[in-house]
Amino acid sequence: MQEPTSTxxxxxxxxxxxxxxxxxxxxxxxxxxMVSLVLAAITAVKIQAFNFGPLTVLVPAGTIxxxxxxxATDVISEVWGRGYALCVVFxxxxxxxxxLFLLLYAMHAEDVVPFISTGGNWTDAQQAAFxxxxxxxxxxxxxxxxxxxxxxxxxxxxFHHMRERDAxxxxxxxxxNVSTMVSQVFNSAIxxxxxxxxxQSWEVxxxxxLGQVVVKVLVATIDTPLVYLxxxxxxxxxxxxxxx
Length: 244
Fold this sequence. Notes:
- It is a multi-pass membrane protein.
- Involved in the import of queuosine (Q) precursors, required for Q precursor salvage.
- By secondary structure, the chain is mainly α.
- The chain has one domain: Orthogonal Bundle (Arp2/3 complex 21 kDa subunit ARPC3), CATH 1.10.1760.
- Helices cover 70% and strands 5% of the residues.
- The protein has helices at residues 21-43, 63-80, 82-112, 124-165, 172-196, 202-222, 224-235; strands spanning 47-52, 55-60.
- A two-stranded antiparallel sheet has the order 1-2.
- A hairpin with a 2-residue loop joins strand 1 and strand 2.
- Residues 1-7 have low confidence and may be disordered.
């Protein structure tokens, strides 16, 4: 009877005795994805005004950070395939739950755990300000979990579909932009509505959705050369290779 074999890092193209460019890019993209996801969740409570000549739109401060998550998943989809990208997306959804739990702990542990209390010079005024900021963060984090889970899944599936459909046609730039832009519009409509309905007027919500879409489309356009660069590093190509 044949003994079952175990899967090692080497079997997966990940040597264990040295650092390769391919392994580095995978861990870099995964790290970029997680860091951007966390920062987007925490900083989304702050609203900024972007002035594009006569057009002024409102944008949550976490929008650019969130846009970088799509850069990461597109590179992973291109080099390692849909399975790896979906693993990163599902891990990201779980991390949003971890963020939510840790924020709730930081805000309310003293109220529910008898042996924990505030210490040092932490005042009631500081606690009130802390709760005001991060209570809003909890709502945006929940909104982000819903919007992110659906839109990131759509991004990976659209990208992979176009990758298979356009094999050999040098259209990485097209699938990167189309998958990101479509999923970002989807994300913005869900996230802004869930996060700010009842706390902002519908006029402001409309401006926030428009602002997110404008900024995310710009980020998606600008990040295209970075997708090629990271793909080329991972695959050992010339840095200026725009095939694929």
